[in-house]
Amino acid sequence: MKKIIFVILLTTLNLQSQVEIVNRPMVSAVIDTALSYQNLIDVGGKKTDTNIQKFLKSVGLKGEHPYCQAFVYYCHSVNGITEFRTGLANGYYSFLKKTYGAKIGCIENKQGIICWKYANSSKGHDGFILNVPMAGYVRTLEGNTSYDNSSVDGRLYSGKKGVFSKIRRVGRLGEMKLRGIIQ
């Protein structure tokens, strides 16, 4: 019995080490800005919510659009980091990978960005990594996401969209596959 548990643990740790990582340190002020929007509810829809329109405007968009990358870019831009203006999560990841290079390695317990991608598509989803609570998982802060029922005040946010913290398994996110990590 002990041998089986040990093998499962090694397999989990080995899966975590097979991640593409772009080496670009995260500026703590960017994370502080992102955290200031935690639990922001998408009130009245993306088209009318002033905060969400502010995120979208930062990447040159208005109206109804997914805003996960617009949120990531906005948090960078208000801190003077405007290296690649896009509302497309995979466009940002591709730019950083080309600029800084990538390697295969373990996710470190430090802040960064995680990016997922649909197969055969340029579309995906991204968010900030706040920490790594256990092997194979990351705690994120994401825009354009649904409420995670693990938070304390779940009755207020249940079923809502907005900027929320989640614990995500590294790998797949629904139909999307992990593209990589920026740390």
Q: What's this, in brief?
A:
The protein is an alpha+beta fold and 183 residues long. The chain has 6 helices and 9 strands, in the order αβαβαααββββαβββ.
User: What is the CATH T-level topology?
Assistant: endopeptidase fold (from Nostoc punctiforme)
Mean pLDDT: 82
Q: Tell me the distance between the termini.
A: 37 Å
Oligomer: single chain
Name the poorly predicted regions: 1-17
Helical stretch tally: 6
| SSE pattern, N- to C-terminal | HEHEHHHEEEEHEEE
CA radius of gyration is: 17 Å
Largest sheet: 9 strands, mixed
- Top CATH class: Alpha Beta
Beta-strand content: 25-35%
Q: How many independent structural domains?
A: 1
By helix and strand content, what is the structural category?
alpha+beta
Helix content: 25-40%
Globular, elongated, flat, extended or rod-shaped: what is the shape?
Answer: globular
CATH architecture: Alpha-Beta Complex
Number of strands: 9
Structural write-up:
The chain has 183 residues and is α+β, with helices and mostly antiparallel strands. The protein is built from six helices and nine strands, in the order αβαβαααββββαβββ. Strands 1, 2, 3, 4, 5, 6, 7, 8 and 9 form a nine-stranded mixed sheet that branches.
Based on the model shown, name its key terms.
single chain, 32% helix, 31% strand, alpha+beta, 183 residues, 6 helices, nine-stranded mixed β-sheet, endopeptidase fold (from Nostoc punctiforme), disordered N terminus
Q: What is the topology?
A:
Elements: H1 2-17, E1 19-22, H2 28-35, E2 40-41, H3 50-58, H4 68-77, H5 89-100, E3 102-105, E4 112-118, E5 124-134, E6 137-146, H6 154-157, E7 161-169, E8 172-173, E9 176-182
